[in-house]
Amino acid sequence: MPTVVRCRSVVCLLGGFPALAGLDLDVDAGEVVLLSGPNGAGKTTLLRMLAGLVPVVRGEAVVLGADLRTDRRRHRHLVGFVGHDSGAYDDLTVRENLRLWARLRGRAATCADETLGWAGLGPCADMPAARLSAGQRRRLALAGASLVVPSLLLLDEPHAGLDDAGRALVDDLVGVTAAAGGTVLLASHERDRVRPLARREVHVAGGRAFPVREVVGAAP
Amino acid sequence: MSGPVNAGLPLWREAALVAAKDLRIETRARVTSGQVLPFALVVVLLFAFALDPDRGLLGRVAPGLFWVTVLLAALLAVGRSVAVEQAAGVRDQALLAGLDGTGVFLGKVAAVTVELAVLEVVLGATMVVLYDVQVTGGAVLAAAALPATAGIAATGTLYAGLASGTRMRDTLLPLLVLPVTSPVLLGATRAFEDALDGAAGDAWGWVALLWVFALFAVAAGMLAFGALWEDGGA
């Protein structure tokens, strides 16, 4: 299996504080990895660093063949990322946001309309994003990530704020990505929910990653 | 539900998407019509009150007052244009979609130029009525207004991107933009004065200056805005 993520002694700063402090991590293609750890451990910064959204101050980080020390942009179009925020423009409707994201990713607008149905956002498609509930905003973020099948899918607390149907969307997104040969990293406190999806678990604490020996998941 | 990833769009397509998005947001939020335009009209009215009852003086200084008002209104427009990208997670989505900072800059400049052009038409009509200005040399007025507006939009967008990464962005933006755009204020005012005085032939030198400024401002923005966008300054 080719290595999709290779990190060696990676340091990333967050407001001058080393949110990642010498992190080592290897992830192979097709793996589904659960990132566990307490609040403030560095999980979110790790995911944002892998997406090329946070600069690497020291160490080596190669993601999908791109050296993040020298080029954080080259691999971004291959990455799907669902963070804490939906990333939607409040004054645009749900449909307009999705269509914009689809067009920016070189997809047809009709693709966005299909995604609306998948995410269960049809009834609020023409509602401004500002009026969505927290769960609906999370669904919108998932819909945005599902517009393409990424080579690397990064999910930060993807189940938070979702009802059962919404949680099933997360599982579906992970399953589709993994089935297509993509790699998935999920940061979550809901280990019981995520464990069946993941092949292995990495514990993040103090800005470093520690492998959990137990093989956890039943994912392919 | 999904398809293969795309490596990226041509720059012009990115700029067009950003411009269309910004104009749609402004239409929906009504910041230009509800805040920027009323602000500009109030400024014009205040000048009229301050200089009244000498309507002859108002007519003579109308070009300068017009461009000072446009500059002040532009500060609101560019501030708002960059602020919509500061909402939580918005920039992340755009970066991951492969949106290039240069495309963002060009799109925002285009959208702000359109907004300011609408404002200038309303402002001009108001000044014709309030200041008793006789409009002549329409071609020169248009030839000067286009590069002046684009130059203000480009300079304002670049500095709004720079200031957005700081805590004192609201006070920093005018301090940065107003001195740098003084050539626009000078050139556009002189071109308008010549046109309104019936000496349109004298205005073309100023129009040329405005084009040089606009091209320089757009080029500088294309070079610099990408770094601001990438590092979260924009």
Describe this structure in words.
The complex is a heterodimer of chains A (220) and B (234). Chain A is 28% helix and 28% strand. By secondary structure, chain A is α/β, with parallel strands linked by helices. Chain A has a domain at 3-87 and 149-212: Rossmann fold. In chain A, the strands form 2 sheets. Chain A has a 6-stranded mixed β-sheet with strand order 6-7-8-3-9-10, with helices on both faces. In chain A, helix 4 (134-145) runs parallel beside helix 5. The two termini of chain A are 14 Å apart. The model of chain A has no long low-confidence stretch (mean pLDDT 90). Chain B has 9 helices and no strands. Chain B has one domain. In chain B, 80% of the residues lie in helices and 0% in strands. Chain B is globular and about 55 Å long. The mean pLDDT of chain B is 89. The chains are: A alpha/beta (220), B mainly alpha (234). The interface between A and B is large, with 45 and 31 residues.
Question: What is Rg of chain A?
Answer: 17 Å
- Integer count of domains of chain B: 1
- Spell out the helices and strands of chain B N to C: HHHHHHHHH
Tally of DSSP β-strands of chain A: 10
The helical percent of chain B reads over 70%
> Quick one: which chains have the greatest interface?
A-B, 45 and 31 residues
From the N-terminal CA to the C-terminal CA of chain B, the straight-line distance is 32 Å
Query: Biggest sheet of chain A, in brief?
Result: 6 strands, mixed
Strand content of chain B: under 5%
Uncertain regions spanning at least 5 consecutive residues of chain A: none
Oligomer: heterodimer
CATH topology of the domain at 3-87 and 149-212 in chain A: Rossmann fold
